[in-house]
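Why predict the complex rather than its parts? Because the way molecules touch one another can change local conformation, and only a joint prediction can capture that. The input here totals 226 residues.
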Amino acid sequence: AQKVTQAQTEISVVEKEDVTLDCVYETRDTTYYLFWYKQPPSGELVFLIRRNSFDEQNEISGRYSWNFQKSTSSFNFTITASQVVDSAVYFCALLTNTDKLIFGTGTRLQVFP
Amino acid sequence: DVKVTQSSRYLVKRTGEKVFLECVQDMDHENMFWYRQDPGLGLRLIYFSYDVKMKEKGDIPEGYSVSREKKERFSLILESASTNQTSMYLCASSARLAHTEAFFGQGTRLTVV
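Output of the joint prediction:
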């Protein structure tokens, strides 16, 4: 089965706190791709990052970082020094080798001033 | 600027009506997707098309059909709308087998009364 689990439904933090959003995936494919998307209040999904199954290097982009661990089938997302503008719903997704894009249920992040 | 455009932002339809949701992309993508988004359930794949006239069922195809007569256009059809189809519908497109990100439209919020 192909599945993405985001166990955290909602997270609330105060500005400048660090926050980690968890993502666990299931797939039997040996080659697959993982994504994170952001959905701000406006509604349109915004692509954040793609990672393929052969590249376990962590990635950092400004305040955002991603930790990919095949051993635990996880692809977690950390926001450092969170800001109010980070408030959104964040989705983790799995791209199968048949090009289907499967999403998790999302985590709503609220950052309070 | 790449674009996925959904024909309506908001729609209100009556139970039993036939409803068409239209999606057009200008990126010459082979793959197109229809998802519905409901609170707590994330994005669930309804149908997926990887080429003109080609389609695959997603996780929740019941009550829906699709049409892909031209590469740039992917239509979602509710043959007889029901109140449990009230939801946000999102269209997306991606390049076939490129394993790159999908681009999303702004969404159509459908209310069936």
